[in-house]
Design brief:
The structure is a homodimer. Chain A is an alpha/beta fold. The first copy, chain A, contains twelve helices and eight strands. In chain A, helix 6 runs parallel beside helix 7 and helix 10 runs parallel beside helix 12. Chains A and B meet through helix 7, helix 8, helix 9, helix 10 and helix 12 of A and helix 7, helix 8, helix 9, helix 10 and helix 12 of B.
Chain lengths: 316, 316
Amino acid sequence: MYRDKIKVLDCTIRDGGLINNHDFDRRFVRKVFKAISEAGIDYMEIGYKNSKELFSPKEYGLWKFCDDEEIKKITDGIKSKTKISVMVDVGRVKLEDVKPASKSPVSMIRVASYVKDVDKAIYMANHFADKGYETTINIMAISKDQGVELDEALHQINEESKINVLYIVDSFGALYQETVEDLIKRARKIIKSKEIGFHGHNHQQLAFGNTIEAIIHDANYLDGTVYGIGRAAGNCPLELLIGFLKNPKFDIRPILDLISNEFIPLRKKIEWGYIIPYAIAGMMNEHPRAAMALRKSSKKEDYREFYESILNTGLD
Amino acid sequence: MYRDKIKVLDCTIRDGGLINNHDFDRRFVRKVFKAISEAGIDYMEIGYKNSKELFSPKEYGLWKFCDDEEIKKITDGIKSKTKISVMVDVGRVKLEDVKPASKSPVSMIRVASYVKDVDKAIYMANHFADKGYETTINIMAISKDQGVELDEALHQINEESKINVLYIVDSFGALYQETVEDLIKRARKIIKSKEIGFHGHNHQQLAFGNTIEAIIHDANYLDGTVYGIGRAAGNCPLELLIGFLKNPKFDIRPILDLISNEFIPLRKKIEWGYIIPYAIAGMMNEHPRAAMALRKSSKKEDYREFYESILNTGLD
């Protein structure tokens, strides 16, 4: 019944970090790592690897930088087959700061890139591959970038990169399942010897449905987060994905405990999920930043005004 | 771009009534009717038509009974092209209490039925059709009833009923888009001269995605509720559906105002939406009644125990 090739990547701490400046404390991150490990999830992405010359550790939490020593404090003493992943953005990491994989607790480095930056992304990913890491390129905001440039980027990635997985990323939560089908098929056609992955956003409550759609069309690397935490509306809820996949290696129960004990209290402190301004941004195919700003203002529930402001001006 | 045949039915008050004993006050229901009318929604389902001999008006609000005079108090003085619908359950209405359509503010009567009760449903629907109403049969809990009996029921409905629309109802929020595709195609093949409709439940955040799937496979009658209100996890959010459909007759703005002004405050008083025990019931293909009971108990956040109780005993 299940597809053995499917790998699930939990990015709770990484994408969730986008709503709290990556400032989860070590106790919390260990709880997450333990539950993710017990649940049999293949990868856990713990944060971004950013240069401390570009971002100040005074302003951001540990998981904006993901020092190897900090990661070891999380994983030490916890029995786990879960591999650790970190994300890097084009232009925000000093390559020489990254040790060879053999000396690091990190197994996978995912390079987030817009279509236009694909040359840089390939260069970076190949650098990390040469250092022994599994690598991916995650094409962000793909709903805004479906022209011929996308095909060109995919061809380049296929021919020039050493990555293991090419990810389609619906950063704006704007894709419907027909678009997901089209994009996955398009990538599948060009990307010959690498896996395809999908990372959804939940602005229109479609992250899980779109992930299923991606599975149907042969994406094998799937992202989820505990209780759907993540920027703006958040991501595909990991618990739903585990409930759907039939692979007996997964166990939903540690995730359920984690939600009961950690995420229900956390949700009272920081906000994500189905919130109308994010839905509006999704249906308009726009970055959620204006909606995120609205949610911090006194007009947080003035949906019509927000809708009309996007209609009239756009966000870009 | 859009499909002219598509009709949207708002069942905010009817399905939402399942979480508050149908006890919305007249002011609130008028606000909803006004917004639904301004938004250009085709139908608004206002409640159930139940016999007062079976249910006491002391225990339930107005919308458990939907007296014509009460409906008129809602619609009077509001400019509207929206037709009024009511739902009836097999065996819970006295047919002779229902006036001819020409003397009623109601345009459509929807008969909710399990597969096993289809003979009774056809009898009732034909009775209402003869009285001049548009009619539908809504096959509930279809995720539990996909055997040959379903085909038999569909054949009977096709041959013996006078209904306008046959609805597929995912009462348990258990369908994935592949199942929706299969069920809609199966119904479409048997039901020749009637429209197909879809009513989703949101236990696994799939109500909207499944509704899109139904549209893709030619369902033309689509249910939604404002802010997704409805039993347990609720329904397909009407605002997302309107955002997706391209028909220029729809206007999302009155719905946005309604959510800001009425549904954000209401949500603080009564509960619906993405809540883990409902997700568990959905993935287990079970009625949400045990999950609803859990949410009223002191163990409302004990998800693992709830999951294991269903695993070990089932709910039926």
